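Researcher: Structure for this, please.
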Amino acid sequence: MTNEPIKEILGTPKLPDSVPPEKSNNNDCVVTTIPLVSECQLTAATGGAELSCYRCTIPFGVVILIAGTVVTAVAYIFNSHGSIISVFGLVLLSSGLVLLASSAVCWKIRQHKKKAKRRESQTALVANQRTLFG
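Model: Predicted structure, token format:
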């Protein structure tokens, strides 16, 4: 853990050292400050939802995939190849597949990070036990 005080971590983020001034028409100098949001504040505001991308895209992907399948099936039943409805159905179908594939990739990446973190934690624990009992 870092040696920084908790108040500094959870408090307001530090402002940049220099902010470029904005010029107006009557030669007044106006300084605009942009509030910076830290990762801790983002996590507190969203309840940690920014790390659950794959959980959110799975339901949308399934619904869009089903809608794309239905629209494409209806378009091809009526032999309207190349029409707007068949193109729309294929776009929905491919969008659903892309969403499901991206959620699977996000899930795999997150699982890999969890395994690496667990392995690192176990290595540190074993090294700590060796120094205590060795």
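Researcher: Any notable elements?
Model: Confidence is low (pLDDT under 50) at residues 4-10. Helices lie at 6-10, 39-46, 53-77, 84-133.
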